[in-house]
Amino acid sequence: MDRLEAGEAVRRAVRTQGRRWSELAELLGRSVVWTTSALLGQQPLGREQAELVAKELSLGQEVVEGLCLPPVRGAAAVDRSEPVVYRLEEVVQVYGSAVAELVAEEFGDGIMSAIDFEMDLRRESDPKGDRVVLTLSGKFLPYRVW
């Protein structure tokens, strides 16, 4: 079983058992966004973490072994036709240039790290319909002149 197959086994178990990702985050002592990303195959997991989750979800040793493989990141790990993912790509297409320009204006020439990075998701009540609030927090990395 590869890393993405192990992630899919975890996803199926979460759904069929009526579990919540936040329960698994609490079990691992990590944020819910990081935990979900890790269990879907995009962050490194230690054997102890993989065994805790497998035990909690009654999954076999083959899932543990799959979860311990190196993470799979990027397009191979994402269904770009999934509506939420598609809309996030649309946000980057529409606002990406503006965000890059504003980062440069505020911080100077550089980038936001996706390695030293945290993300949070929360629900916000709104009379026009509940809102999804995403907070992205990445360390600023200035470009250096060599």
TrEMBL record:
<dbReference type="GO" id="GO:0008824">
    <property type="term" value="F:cyanate hydratase activity"/>
</dbReference>
<dbReference type="Pfam" id="PF21291">
    <property type="entry name" value="CYNS_N"/>
</dbReference>
<dbReference type="InterPro" id="IPR003712">
    <property type="entry name" value="Cyanate_lyase_C"/>
</dbReference>
<dbReference type="Pfam" id="PF02560">
    <property type="entry name" value="Cyanate_lyase"/>
</dbReference>
<feature type="domain" description="Cyanate lyase C-terminal">
    <location>
        <begin position="74"/>
        <end position="146"/>
    </location>
</feature>
<feature type="active site">
    <location>
        <position position="113"/>
    </location>
</feature>
<dbReference type="InterPro" id="IPR048564">
    <property type="entry name" value="CYNS_N"/>
</dbReference>
<comment type="function">
    <text>Catalyzes the reaction of cyanate with bicarbonate to produce ammonia and carbon dioxide.</text>
</comment>
<protein>
    <recommendedName>
        <fullName>Cyanate hydratase</fullName>
        <ecNumber>4.2.1.104</ecNumber>
    </recommendedName>
</protein>
<keyword id="KW-0456">Lyase</keyword>
<dbReference type="InterPro" id="IPR010982">
    <property type="entry name" value="Lambda_DNA-bd_dom_sf"/>
</dbReference>
<comment type="similarity">
    <text>Belongs to the cyanase family.</text>
</comment>
<feature type="active site">
    <location>
        <position position="90"/>
    </location>
</feature>
<dbReference type="InterPro" id="IPR008076">
    <property type="entry name" value="Cyanase"/>
</dbReference>
<dbReference type="InterPro" id="IPR036581">
    <property type="entry name" value="Cyanate_lyase_C_sf"/>
</dbReference>
<feature type="active site">
    <location>
        <position position="87"/>
    </location>
</feature>
